[in-house]
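Appendix B, example 12.
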Amino acid sequence: MHAVAAHRVRLFLVDAFTSELFAGNPAGVVLDAEGLEDRDLQLIAREFGGVDTAFVLPPDAADHDLRLRFFTPRAETGFVGHATVAAQAVRHALGLPACRRQKQRTGIVEIGSSDGAPGPRYAFAQAPPPVQETLQGERLRALTNALGLATGDLDPDCPAVIAGAGGSRALLAVRDGTILARLQPDPMRLRALSAAGHPPGYFVYTLAPAVPNCETEARMFCPAIGIPEDPVSGNAHAMLAMHLHALRRLPERPGQRGFTGRQGHHLGRPGVLQVEILLEAGAPRSVRVSGCATIVFAATLDLPERALRP
């Protein structure tokens, strides 16, 4: 006998921070998941493979329009920038009402969209992530060794720091894009550093990119959370914006400061995003990250009774 479906969800795979298929950072998006247990959500996310998955849920208070819960293949996490962009692209494609405020474990972010070339752009704006501390001495040497960097590879005008609230990252600047291209980090050593107190992710960037039409070029390594190299990170670029702002290295525009970042091309998944610090009375009010997104496929999943509870 065939099991009777007890719950049907809609599944989407979306490439974020790109207008092309099979580029940028892939994310799963799941609609109609209200009523499922946490374990169900984790198993669905695991079934997507090695991508982060956003579950779109109704609001539970008047101060936001919808809720998102984010799951990696291993565990729930507080906020995922590229999966937020992916969820917006899905809602836009389905003609669902515009959403302005999104709630997740880390609080509420403002979201929006705009038309442009080569297609619609989706954005999230969050509170400015803090720069926590400067990395130096033995802690910095251990990290550069694990990343395969020599001391002379580092940009002396941009000190290495740990940034972020909730999910922190180490930000390290190198002199130019050729150094980024030859990076060969040791995943086991990076995992050991994270277990010993370093952040779970290592964002290596340059202000002298080897690719055109951008101000920054980057790579990010997160083996401690099961991601050897993350294609394009919106969160880390928001942290980078605040770090460069503190260093007075951001281009100035009326009422805001920002840059174009590129990441993912070293993995064959090129992505591009726009990052802006929105100012109020001259002080940072929020960081806005935006980019395109492309839906790769859509499907439905019928969940029979106890199918998710082996």
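The two ends are 18 Å apart (CA to CA). The longest strand covers residues 5-16.
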